[in-house]
Design brief:
Pfam families: PRKCSH. By secondary structure, the protein is of the alpha+beta class. The chain is 31% helix and 31% strand. The protein contains four helices and ten strands.
């Protein structure tokens, strides 16, 4: 994400509301501590740093996921980043059961360009984004297709976590894209031929005969 926000790493900010103390440690976790004298006062993790929330090509918040278990799921927290005079945790709520919402104020996000995603990407990924923009402009892809391409770029940059299905899809894509060109195909064929030769030699050393037909 934005390099200037990394200066928040290693620091923690707390907020007290009634009997609860919330603590937000950017790029680490969010915790909650019940400040009562009850024998079973709750103290636990509301989420661990996971990924960014990106909207309109802008970093709008941080997702802290996979916190302590809560019935059938894990607690998770979305931290909204807003402009403020100093670094402070300003507001905490629980919009739905075990899903928390924190508002973190910081002068680090006051500049209009401070949370743009594009400048944080590598040149290669910026080029991919430019190509996606061009495809959209030329009406060769739909809005939905454009969003899908952006999501893939953000996942590749490590800003978003890819879901398991996406990972499987990506791997199978990689395999099918190996032979986009004749040159690539020839190169791969050479490498595989070399590997087969070596394997045949190895098998021979162990007294195993290699039975392969021309089709293989």
């Amino acid at each position: 994400g934005p390099a200037h926000l990394f200066r928040l790493a290693g620091k923690c900010f707390s907020f007290v509301e009634s009997t609860y103390k919330y603590e937000f440690c950017p790029f680490h976790n969010v915790t909650q501590h019940e400040q009562t004298f009850r024998w079973n006062a709750y103290s636990g993790i509301l989420g661990i740093w996971h990924e960014w929330e990106i909207d309109n090509n802008t970093f709008v918040g941080m997702w802290m996921r996979e916190g302590d278990s809560c019935e059938t799921k894990s607690r998770q927290t979305k931290v909204h980043l807003v402009c403020g005079k100093s670094n402070k945790l300003a507001y905490v709520s629980e919009p739905s059961t075990c899903v928390y919402s924190l508002t973190f104020e910081t002068p680090l996000v006051c500049h209009p360009h401070s949370l743009l995603v594009y400048p944080t990407l590598t040149e290669a990924l910026q080029r991919k984004w430019d190509e996606a923009e061009q495809l959209l402009y030329d009406e060769l892809i739909t809005d939905q297709g454009y969003k899908k391409l952006l999501k893939e770029i953000f996942e590749e940059a490590g800003l978003l976590k890819a879901t398991e299905e996406n990972e499987v899809e990506k791997q199978s894509k990689k395999i099918t894209l190996e032979f986009e060109t004749v040159e690539k195909c020839s190169k791969e064929y050479k490498q595989l031929s070399e590997e087969i030769k070596k394997l045949k030699v190895l098998l021979g050393q162990h007294g195993i005969t290699y039975k392969g037909n021309s089709g293989e």
